[in-house]
Amino acid sequence: MECRNQQLVLEQIGNDHYFYNEAIKTLRTNIQFCGSGIQAVMFTSSLPDEGKSDTTFSLAQSFGSIGKRVLLIDADIRKSVVAVRHGIRGKVNGLSQYLSGQKTMEEIIYPTNVENMDLVLAGPYSPNPAELLEDKLFENLIEEARKQYDYILVDTPPMGNLIDGAIVASKCDGAVLVIESGGVSYRLVQKVKSQLERSGCRLLGAVLSKTGGERSGKYYNRYYKKYYDKKYEKYKEYEEAKR
């Protein structure tokens, strides 16, 4: 699998907030602690605008900064924000075109100006994204990417009312749930958590986004890695990035 496309120059690729960057580093470290079997990781949320796309992008950038080769896949075919948020203009190929047979795998992978990070954009809107993501072609993309990259990070649609994320989860090694502080109900988060577990994907933990400091110009997140103690049937907090 070789990139045939010219480099995409992405805008808004940095974050000057110290605590946010430290939280992303902690998230990166905790994912590494999950073991060598965790290579393809999906990021989802319960509702739109909870911060999953920013978190995924920042994590990809963080992995790249320590020399890890990363492929960021925007699988939110319904309502992607990546291209607009990072100033991508002009005609570019995307995931929906590959999954519908219009483009090859090599034609949708773009090198970027972010160190060690390549990007697959969502592509044009499709009326049947769930069916496209279920296609063998998506699984082939993930499997081929495993041979070329240290990590594959997949940004998926919110799972509160859509099945797309659960389909992607079944192709990945682990999932991270991004939760907006005070922005989503406990019941809905539990519903999404159950969907992820039924997919067979390992739930690595959660990122708590948009905590108190954001309104004063700061943005924090917290990462929890939980493991299951079969003997006592408890979850134990592993580590937390906080102010």
UniProtKB/TrEMBL annotation:
InterPro entries: AAA_dom (IPR025669), Bact_polysacc_biosynth/exp (IPR050445), P-loop_NTPase (IPR027417), Wzc-like_C (IPR005702)
Sorted UniProt keywords: ATP-binding, Kinase, Nucleotide-binding, Transferase, Tyrosine-protein kinase
All residue ranges annotated as the AAA domain in the record: 51-169
Enzyme kind, highest EC tier: transferase
Keyword Transmembrane helix part of the UniProt annotation: no
EC number: 2.7.10.2
One cellular component term from this protein's GO annotations in UniProt: plasma membrane
Pfam families: AAA_31
Catalyzed chemical reaction(s): L-tyrosyl-[protein] + ATP = O-phospho-L-tyrosyl-[protein] + ADP + H(+)
Keyword Zinc: no
Recorded GO MF terms: ATP binding; non-membrane spanning protein tyrosine kinase activity
SUPFAM superfamilies: P-loop containing nucleoside triphosphate hydrolases
Record family assignment: Belongs to the CpsD/CapB family.
NCBIfam families on file: eps_fam (TIGR01007)
Protein name: non-specific protein-tyrosine kinase
Organism for this UniProt entry: Candidatus Enterocloster excrementigallinarum
